[in-house]
Every structure is written in C-alpha cells, then in structure tokens.
Amino acid sequence: MADTLLSAAATAARLPYPELAAEIAALLADDTVVVPPRLVQPLPGGGSLFVMPAHDATVAITKLITFTPANAGSARATIQGDVVVFDIATGTRRLVLDGPTVTARRTAAVSLLAAQRLAPRPDGALLIVGAGVQGRAHLEAFAAGLGVKEAWICSRSAASAQGLAAHARSLGLAARVVDDPAAALAHCPLVVTATPASAVVLDAAPRSDAFIAAVGAFTPRMVELGAQMCRELHARGTVVVDTGDAGHEAGDLLQAGIDVAALPALAAVLAGEPVRPPGPVLFKSCGWAGWDLAAARLAVRG
C-alpha cells in the first residue's frame, strides 16, 4: 500500500502543470476515452459526494471526493478524497492519488491549456479573484505554462490574499493585493475567478483582449460572474466551455440566460485550426472525470 498511496506532495510532484496540460490535450484526441456521467449525491448539511469514473484503453479510475462548503474558513478542506487508478489488463490497483491535489492541479491545467490556445495576451498580467487552493494552483500553472510575471490578487480574506501574493513573489512574480477586482480588469488581460461561488464577485466590462477562466461555479445555483458580464462576453467575444456537461452545470451562464448547449467545448476548439478568436474570451470550467483520467495517465508514468 505504501508504494501506491501517494501523499499530496507526492501526487503534486507527478503532475507538473505544463506536462499535465499537454496530457489533457492528448486525452481529448484519444477516442478510447470513456467518461460516464458523474454521480453527485447531496449529503445532509449541504455537502455533496462525487463519484466520477473514467477509463481509456489501459487505465481505469474512480474519483471519490466530498465537497463540504461549511468547511470554508476552517482548518478542514472543502474538498477531500482520493483518485483510485487501476490497470485494465490485470485489474491491479496502480495508484491512489490525493483527490484535492488532483482536483486543484487538473483544473488549473485545463485553464492553462485553454489560455495557451485562446488567450489574446497570454503573458498577463494576471488577476486572480479568490486566494484559496484553486487561486494558488492557477497562479502556479499560469506562471509555469505561460510565463506570467505579474499577479494582482483579490480575496475576501486579506490574510489569504497577502499569503498568495507572498507565494507569487517566491516564484519570481511581481504581486499586489487589490480590493476592487473590477478596477483591476483594465490592467489585467488574464483573469481567473476561483471563489466558493456563493455570490457574484465580478460584473464589469473586461478588456477587449481579456481571457477569463471562471472555475468556481460548477452547479446551476453557483455563480461568480454577473449575468450582464456573461451576456456582454457572449455578445462581443467568445465563450468556450470545458465539456458539454456545462450545459446543466455552468451556473454563471445558465443564470445569464445563455444557451450553454450551443457553446463550443474545449475539445472542438483544440481540434480546429489554431486561430485566436477576436475580442475577449470567457472559458467556463465545471469539471469532468476526463481531466482526472489525464492526471492519472501522467502520474502512472512518473
């Protein structure tokens, strides 16, 4: 068990962001990948249990995690669990990966992949709204995969914002903490919203060359971006979703009255000609077990 059960640090070591983004792109081009619908079981007290299977021709996984919003602001993580990886030919368990680490890193790597392909100004500066686990992961991913050198950070927790700014500086980035994310939009062509998605945190016109990755809201009731902002981005720019599942999960877009099912998914964008669209880009990410399978494929090779 000791050889297969990886700690959070050991899991992270097997999932460097640029390599994970490349593995995600490879997975999207692999026609052996099968991803059944995930089971989301509501739990007493407002939490949820997620059961997310997936497989390709050689590896099968199941991700088992709990999402407990009530843990926000406490010493307990809001996302806990594991990703169990099996060899298909033998049925042998290959690895047990730390679930929160996989979730953080694969989500940021998907955003990185979308930005590599779609961002008009991929070198930043970068505005991060939300200084938790996902904010940190996206900071690291965009620094490693895009060469971002400047980060602006906004959080409802001043201590968390200062902590993430200090981490950015430790990576060699210039960093500042800001109170008003809407005002920072004028300076930052890259934007990531990674909040608990309990209320709108951004509802303003972005730059015409903006790339916005919205990752916090992954149910119909959750929201980070205001309805008017979503509608404006849809009208004068490009909106891309991570997968077709966003059609019933992307709270920001659904609450704005946008026909999410008609929007292009990342796989279709990657399969087309590598042309950056004109105007601002919104990449809406809701999550998918395929991203966890990509992480498992990379981890078993490590």
Radius of gyration, taken over Cα atoms and rounded to an integer in Å: 18 Å
CATH classification class of the largest domain: Alpha Beta
Question: Could you give the distance between the termini?
Answer: 17 Å
The helix content, as a percent range, equals 25-40%
Order of helices and strands: HHEEEEEHEHEHEHEEEEHEHHEH
Q: Give the count of helical stretches.
A: 10
Share of residues in strands: 15-25%
- Write the CATH fold name of the largest domain: Rossmann fold
CATH superfamily of the largest domain: NAD(P)-binding Rossmann-like Domain
The biggest beta sheet reads: 7 strands, parallel
Q: In which order are the strands of the major sheet placed?
A: 8-7-6-9-11-14-13
In the predicted model, the low-confidence regions spanning at least 5 consecutive residues are: none
Total domain units: 2
- Overall mean pLDDT stands at 95
CATH architecture descriptor text of the largest domain: 3-Layer(aba) Sandwich
How many E-type strands? 14
How does the overall form come out from the CA principal axes?
globular
Kindly name the structural category: alpha/beta
GO molecular function: hormone binding
GO cellular component, one term: cytoplasm
Protein name: Delta(1)-pyrroline-2-carboxylate reductase family protein
Organism: Pseudothauera lacus
